[in-house]
Write a structure and sequence with these properties.
By secondary structure, this protein is mainly β. The protein is built from one helix and 27 strands. The strands form seven sheets. The protein has a four-stranded antiparallel sheet with strand order 1-2-3-4, with no helix packed on it. A four-stranded antiparallel sheet has the order 5-6-7-8, with no helix packed on it.
Length: 372
């Protein structure tokens, strides 16, 4: 990748800032959180990390505060006067209201489908800041309705709003629960042998316990109204009361999940490292492994009707299943130079195709007609 990739739906993180400020507040002139987004002529080829369908238009977000708009998924234009230069990694919408969030704890909002924006939150780290929580990026967003929403991020960051994002309150997630053991400290014993000895740690010395404050990478809502958060080291949190209380669980895999999508009932699908995919029909109480056919990281997805889905990830991987009881079929997205980009998000478009977004901008993948 020629672009610096700070997140690509979470496997690569650059932590940068967190001090909540009201809408319209100003900060250091040199801080990207408070600078306007860069203006670029070819934004559709820049690093794009998430996208959504807002009304009848497409909105994509990415590096240096970039927001792109399109009515048909083919012609793109940059939104003007986006009030941040921080990288935006997540998007959520309700009707014509759309929110985008990312590094420096930034959250911006548009009430007109992305045409104009205001900053609702910024959280840049400063050198004299003694609070270790400051500098936490927001990694995903979800809005239940136009007023009630959630923002999640690194180090178990969970923010909640009940006024459309004008104010955000930090919530605390449980540190352990049903099938999760308490976190254990990491202790690496330093060898005391002479300098000529091999400095190799044993398996016991290298083993890591569960994180007490894992990075939270993605949040989804199911048709039942249940909420599921997935993150680092197989961490899962679920809520059946609109986020008033949460239960911590664990996947049958100790790696990180980078995304989660939901359908009707309590049906969810989580995906992440090494092509791992897990499915649950009880809001993450129990999980079943799903064969993806790939071993590369999966970083973005979109839910299709009847349990169908499109998953995207590293090496241009695009996976599609047309129903919940079908297997995944693989395609590979290749750009004009012959490279297979890392993909972070996908959206369906007309003509049995999907738009894909990643470190080479936006592309289009024609899906083969499913077998009868």
């Amino acid at each position: 990748m020629s672009h610096p990739c700070p997140r690509l739906r979470a496997p690569l993180l650059v932590l940068v800032g967190a001090l909540a400020l009201p809408t319209g507040a100003t900060g250091p002139l040199s801080d990207p959180a408070f600078l306007p987004a860069d203006v670029t002529r070819h934004g559709e080829g820049a690093l794009l990390l998430d996208a959504g369908l807002v009304g009848h238009a497409y909105v994509a977000v990415g590096e240096r505060g970039l927001v792109l708009l399109s009515g048909d998924g083919q012609a793109w234009r940059q939104a003007v006067r986006v009030p941040t230069r921080s990288t935006l990694v997540a998007i959520a919408s309700v009707g014509d209201s759309v929110w985008a969030a990312g590094h420096d704890g930034v959250i911006v909002h548009s009430s007109n489908a992305g045409r104009s924006w205001v900053r609702q939150r910024a959280a840049p780290w400063t050198a004299d800041d003694a609070d270790p929580a400051h500098g936490t990026p927001v990694l995903d967003l979800l809005f239940v309705d136009a007023r009630h929403g959630f923002a999640i991020g690194a180090y178990s960051l969970l923010l909640e709003t009940h006024d459309g994002g004008r104010t955000w309150v930090t919530q605390t997630l449980p540190g352990g629960g049903d099938d999760t053991q308490a976190a254990q400290p990491v202790v690496l014993a330093v060898p005391t042998a002479p300098a000529t000895a091999d400095w190799v740690f044993s398996d016991d010395q290298l083993e890591l316990g569960d994180e007490s404050d894992p990075h939270l990478n993605a949040i989804a809502r199911t048709g039942s109204g249940g909420l599921v958060i997935v993150g680092e080291r197989g961490s899962v949190y679920r809520s059946r009361d609109d986020g008033a209380t949460w239960v911590r669980g664990k996947l049958p895999y100790n790696g990180s999940m980078f995304g989660v999508i939901g359908w009707s009932g309590e049906h969810v699908l989580a995906f992440g490292m090494r092509g791992k995919v897990f499915e649950s029909r009880d809001l993450g109480t129990s999980w079943t492994a799903v064969e993806s056919g790939v071993a590369t990281a999966l970083m973005g997805a979109v839910a299709l009707p009847e349990g169908g889905a499109v998953l995207v990830g590293a090496d241009g991987v695009v996976l599609r299943r047309d129903r919940g009881d079908a297997g995944f079929r693989r395609l590979t997205h290749t750009v004009r130079t012959g490279e297979t980009p890392t993909l972070a998000a996908a959206l369906p478009v007309a003509g049995n195709a999907v738009l894909v977004f990643g470190d080479r901008g936006v592309g289009r993948v024609a899906m083969t007609v499913p077998a009868p």
